Every structure is written in structure tokens, then in C-alpha cells.
Structure prediction request, 703 residues.
Amino acid sequence: MDKNVLNGLFRPKSIAVIGASTQPGKIGYTVVENLIKSKYEGKIYPINPTASEILGLKVYPTISDVPDSVEAAVVTVPAKFVAQVAEESGKKGVKGFIVITSGFSESGRRDMEDEIVQIGKRYGMRILGPNIVGTLSNADKMNASFAPFLPLPGKASLVSQSGALLIAMDASTYTRRVGFDKLVSIGNMSDVNFADAIEWLNEDPSTSCISLYIEGFKDGRQFIEVSRKATKPIIALKSGVSAHGAAAAASHTGSLAGAAKVYGAAFQQAGVVQASDLDNLFDRTLALSLQPPMTGENILIITNGGGVGVLATDAAERYNIPLKFAPAEVQEELKKHMPEFGSAKNPVDITGMAGTEWYHDTIKYAFAHPWVDALVVLYCETAMTDPSEIARGIKSAVDESGVKDKPVSVSFVGGDKSDKAMKWLVENGIPAYGAPDVAVNVMAALRDYARMRAEAAEPIEPCASENRQLALDIINRARTDGRDALTEVEAKEVFAAYGLPVTKTHLAKTEAEAIQLANQVGYPVVMKIVSPDILHKSDAGGVKVNIKDDKAAGEAFSTIMENARKYKADANIHGIAIQEMAPWGTEVILGSVNDPTFGPTMMFGLGGIFVEVLKDVTFRVAPVTSTQAAQMLSEIRGAPIIAGVRGEAPRDRKELANTICRYSNMILDLSDEISESDANPVLVYEEGKGVKVVDARIILKKK
Ligand code: ACO
Prediction:
């Protein structure tokens, strides 16, 4: 991407407002007024066919009439005129075309949107929007929008898909005291999308943290790729996470892959911190924009009140960073700065008698100690202490500790004085919140960020298989038959081509063949109907297990065939699968979907009732690295069952993780072919004894 071109959108040196209006209250008037009010230092050129002057500025009938070059155009003419002014702007050499106007793809007129994008492409002009509020930058004193004012200055920048929410957030930056440098309304994303904005903001010297409000987008892989490479923290609030596409799903995995889970997995892989709601987006943005990431696991809490200490302790457990006691030497030193009845454990309770000095001394010592990875300082307003004094004590202790690579967060619980003290802390670079829970929650964000960054730096393994052609031949054969689902035997052959450990399975067309193949596989065997018209084999009486000899095999062949005919008289029956009977193991499910945003995506969970009832599954966008596969195994609720519970030997996690990686490689390599797939059940044996895919299903993409 040519960054200079995007400068034309986000920090242009001159702006034409096309559709500038003489009438106060109109968007075209407000944008000109906002540029003036924000003290924009570049040139402003109002464009209007009939007016001669707006707010003291000379007006030009068209952009072509402007005597100088123009870097950006903010467009506030009705939709039907936008293409025409795009053409004129392109000719004029405009780099950034900011389309506030609504009435495009959001209301069924994608064609009009596409037309503008095509014009932009012809002239090397990038399009922001349409259907946006505009773009705002404190660093450039530029309010090129119809939002009322520039946000509270700060180090974060926000990209929002919702315009109305951006306006609301703009105002609340002041009440919440979370500062932003840029606010970018991204709207329909006809051209510039989240990935483009992230890439640009990552290079922007005025931005230290990138916040996103996301409703949904198409180019998920580009988003992951750009975010993984970003060197600044990215935090995202994703709305609209109710199940999407689930109703049409043909596989187990398809029905379980809701937007919340897939976006959540993608954010993790992209190293993007998630926010749970708007409050959380602001709170986490504040911490990520002011503090370094938290590497390590040890949070030390320093408090003057037991109650807030316990609340923070509970929060630490809830956010998965449970507190540990500090080593004895740390406790001994801390004891020197508190009364006899204080506690040097964790939380460190310096008691209600604590004044500025005790806060200062404990913080200065503890923050610099190598055991401490992060500090959370809590304060309950008391009659004997002045909150602003305490705040100054905290800040000077942090500074004097000389520590720059560990985070600190603060919570003051009290009234106006505490509120003022927290404002001062934030202005001085220390995130401060009214609730202890929040001071811990943001620490979890800083810790997650550090972890995800480390993972995002991991190389992604190559994914092609030498046996790709073999898999394609099987798939093409099914397509020639007019099928969009592979049979179990075919699906297993495809799995095997990618190194997945499937049970030995052969197709018998006659009773004699069944007996011969059963001998070849070795008794006991399982026999299953193979028919594209019978997906639920057991329901059709199409499965017989533990067949021990030739006689039983012969009988099973006839019974299964008979049952299948009864179940569906006109079913197309390929034959009966003769399959090795795998010994019992822990049942898990692996599967894949082709997510509309992120493409091939893997699922893992415990099988049987766990998947049916509890939906205890987890996702990752393919390809899945070995670290990510190991995480998948440990993040489901049933993880202890895999790890070995109540005296049971641990399962073969290594081989299971390898299988997930190979499976993810397969769905990526065959992403043009496979729509959904399941390996269910997969049996997992004791450590060192591997795994076996017992049943397999592949649904093909419609071509
Ligand atoms: N070149 C220059 N100026 C032109 C041209 C042209 N080719 N054609 C018209 N104009 C002028 C008009 O003369 C008018 O100026 P005037 O008031 O001095 O006469 C001005 O452009 C605006 O045109 P109008 O026809 O008056 O249009 P209006 O201002 O009513 O609406 C607007 C235009 C605001 C772009 C409207 O079509 C629209 O899309 N509104 C929604 C915008 C929005 O909300 N976007 C963000 C969505 S996100 C959220 O929800 C907050």
C-alpha cells in the first residue's frame, strides 16, 4: 500500500468540501464550520455550484476550478452526484476521497459504490466510506466530519464502522477521560478497510494504540495478516455476535461456528485484544495506550482497604491471572512500611492508616522487584488522607522506581476528590478507574496482549501436501457423480492424503468382498452403510460393530443392506465400509467450516455428549500452528479430561495437536474444494499411543 496516498485521507494538507452549504444545520455547512473551529491549518476549499462565500471562505463552483492542488475531498452532495464529483476529484489529483453521503450498499445500491471505487482506482485515489461521519485528528487540528468537536486529546486512535457510535464516543472521551488522537469513521468500507487503517495508524507517530469498533467485514485474512505485523496494541469490540450462518450448516462444525467464536479465535491469532462492551473498550484502550504490556504472571496488589483488595483478588481469578504470595524477602521488606496489623501477602494491605509515604515506599520497592510483573494500586478515600496527595505519591514512586517495562493500574474508590485525583493520574500516564475490578481487567488485557504478541511472532508452517492430487482426484470423482458430499470412505482417503490417522476402511460391494476385506483388515471389524443419501447411518440401522468372524460379517452385510433399503428405498448405495474396530479412547471432534470472513477455520472439542449438549468447542483460523493447537486443547472446559483426570493417564496431546495442525493444513490447501468437514469421533489414546479418526465427513463447495 502506498502510505502517502492514505495520508491524503487521514492527514491531508488541503481539503475541498464538495457540497459545502450556505445553510447552517446542513452537513455541508457543518463540515466547513468544523474544519474552521478545529483550527485546521491546511487550505479549505468549499465547493458549491451557486454560493460565492461560506463562513468567510471563497467558494468554487467545482473542484476543477480550484487554482491549487487539493489533497482530500470531503463529499456531502446527495448520492446521485457522488460519481460525477469523484471523476472531477480524480482528475484534479485528489488522493483521499471522504464520502459522508449515505445511500449506497447499505441501502441496496452497491452498484453506485462500485462505480466510485472504479473511478478511485483509475486515478489512484483512495475512498473512505461512503456512509460515514468523516475523519478527525488532534495532531492535525482537523475535524473533517460532522461530529461536533475533536476528541479529548490522547494517544489512542479509533476506527469505527458505526458513524453514530463514533459521534457518541467522541463526546464521551471527555466524560470518560480517555484521550484519542484520531477518530476514523470507516462506514461501508468500499475501498479503505480495517486492515488499511490499521497499517496506516501503526506508522502514525501520534497513535500508540489502535481501537476498533467492528460490526463485520469480508477480508478476514488480510485483517489477521496486517494485525499480526502491527507493533502497536490493537483492541477490538465486535458487535453482532449472535450465531450467523448456523441454520444452513450441513455439518456439526458448521452448526457450532458462530461469529463470536470465529472472530474471537481470529482476534487471538491476530494478536488483537478483545473488549466485551463499550465501557470495556474505553477502559482497555486507556491502559493499552498508556502502559507497556505485562510480561509474566505476577500481579502485586497494594491497598489500604481489605474490601477492595478482596474484590480485586476475585477479579484476578475471574480474568485468569490468580494472585500468588510474594516471596518471603519481598514480604519482609514490605512489612517495614505498614503497621503491625497490616498484611504483606498479596493483596498487600497497608491498612486504612496508610498515608502518602507508605504508598510511596511500598510501591517504589515492589515495582522494582523482579518478582513483580505488574502492580495494581487500590485506594479507599479516608478522612485522614488526601486523594490527590496519594495520587502524587503513586506517580513519584513509579517514576523513582525507574521501571519502564512493567504496567501499573490504579483504582480510587471515593467521591469528587478521588475523581479529581484519578483525572490527574490519567493525565500523568497512569490509568485509573473507579472500580478495583476494572484496574485488574485492564491488567489482563496488557497480559493477553503480551502473550498474543509473542505468539503472533511465531512462523506459520507451510501447508501443501505431496498427495494433493490424490485428494483432488477423489473429490473430482464425487463431483462427476453429481455429489457435493464425499462418502465416509472417500473422506477418509482425503484425510489420509494429508497424514491424518484414519481407521483402515475399505468398500465392499458384495457379501463375498465384505468377508474378504474383513479378513484383510483383521477381526473384529465395524461395518457401515456407504450411501450419499444416508447421512445418519445409525438411525438407518446401517452400522454393526464388533463383528468377529466370516459368518457374522456375511450376516451383517445382508442385514445392513436390508435396513438401508427399508430406511430409504431409492437410496444410492455404494456398498458397505469394512473398517478396523479401533479400541476405546477418549472421543473428540475435529471439524472445519469455511467462514464467510476468515475462510477455512478449524474446530476442536470433546466428542459425544460434550459436543452435542455442552458445545464445548473452540476455533482457530487455518493454518493452526502447533502452539495454537496446544492452546485449543487446553482452553475447552473439558481440558482436564484430555490432560488425564482422577488417576486416568493423560491422553496423547502431542499427537492430537499434530493432527489438528495437519487437518488445518488440509482445509487450507483444499479451500477451493471443501466447504465443511468433521472427523467425529476421533479417538485419543494414552500418551505415546496416538489418535484414530473413526468417522469422517466432507461437504464440498458448490461449483
Ligand atoms: N457540487 C458541489 N455542490 C453541490 C453539488 C455538486 N455537484 N450538487 C449539489 N451541491 C450542493 C447543494 O447545492 C447543497 O448546497 P446548498 O445547501 O448551499 O444549496 C449541498 O451540496 C448539499 O446538497 P443538498 O441537495 O442540499 O443535500 P443535503 O444537504 O440535504 O444532503 C447529504 C446531502 C447530507 C450528503 C445526504 O444526502 C446524506 O447522505 N445524508 C446522510 C449522511 C450521513 O448520515 N452519513 C453518515 C452515516 S453514519 C451515521 O449514522 C451518523
Q: What stands out?
A: DSSP finds 24 helices and 29 strands in the chain. Residues 244-249 have pLDDT under 50 and may be disordered. The longest helix spans residues 436-456. The two ends are 33 Å apart (CA to CA).
